[in-house]
Write a structure and sequence with these properties.
Elements: H1 12-29, H2 33-39, H3 44-52, H4 71-83, H5 91-105, H6 108-119, E1 125-128, E2 144-148, E3 151-162, E4 169-175, E5 184-190, E6 197-202, E7 213-224, H7 236-270, E8 274-275, E9 278-279, H8 284-313, H9 320-345, H10 355-363, H11 373-381
Parallel strand pairs: 1-4
Antiparallel strand pairs: 2-3, 3-7, 4-5, 6-7, 8-9
Helix pairs in contact: 1-4, 4-7, 5-6, 5-7, 7-8, 7-9, 7-10, 8-9, 9-10, 9-11
Amino acid sequence: MFQHYRSPWMNEELDMLRATARRFFENEVVPQADTWRKQHYIDKSVWRKAGELGLIGVSFPEEYGGHGGTYAHDVVIIEEQARVCDTSFGYVPGAFGAPTTLILTGTPEQIRRWLPPIVAGEKLLAFCATEPDAGTDIKMLRTTARREGDEYVINGSKMFITHGLRSDLAIVAARTGGPGAKGISLFMVEKDKAPGFKVNKVLEKMGQHGLDTCEVFLDDVRVPAANLLGGVEGNGFGKMMDSFVKERITIAVTAIASAERAIELTLDYVKQRKMFGQTLWDFQNTKFKLAECVSLARIGRVFIDNLIDRLVRGENSPSAEEAAMAKVWCSEQQWKIVDECLQLFGGYGYMQEYPISHFLMDARIQRLYGGSNEVLKDVIARKL
């Protein structure tokens, strides 16, 4: 259906990467999908395989152990993951989001120390920012980091932490100063050296069942002063805000890629499903519904392609409000499109053996994480 449209940022190199990513997800991830969902995490051997194939750190600088690609390289992998309806392999948080924060915040020495094993798939990095009372309003976080000689002692709790259980490393946002944004710093916690880093439980979620999402307690976690990212207190909030621009565009990319795949699956289904002596596709209502879905998906695709192209070229980089627009609009359309598609599957769409049911369950969180859509509308409105 979408074969006649080719994103302007695509090229032959990205085509080859897409083929590699497709084989990886089809051969290494999809066959174990039910296992991942039941145990709520993906085996680390899959991360190592991804590292061997060069699918982690594709856009990170070579000087730090990355592969020197562009954001488009990440997008191709994200799109292929969406194609197989997988959220268990936490590519965006683990191979892109948290490491990006490390690159934006860390000193060159810190990045060279911690990034290479992440790119190799040998170590998994979590990002611990959200708290029970501080989600989108991250300035209100209460976790503290107190300097004691050559160490910092961290105390507090974190909520909804992706890879909280399976990660080897964790970037922790903590308050080193007074209230507000200027008092927040970021620390690298090496979990095998931090017995006070405790995972209370893996949370049961509505969707994304194969991705371990945890509640974390930090009980007198001691880290060397050298683990203060950037080597300067109080720079954490600004660095997180910088990373949010690309994170929100990435959520928009995931939304549109998932919506496009949902439409493809639905087209295949309705053209085969018999009802009242004809196929479901033969009904005018079916054609109209899918025409609306395709139109919405194409509008979203063109919008995010514009943002991706600008990021790749390094010219006229997307603003915070544009990233917010993309995240809000695309995640809203994803939910609408996938819901319409599931309706056309009828009762079968409600069965977990059909991918469309997972597309719907996994889509709901898109309007919440990365900044709730209601708050991001306020971000957009401030520039009006």
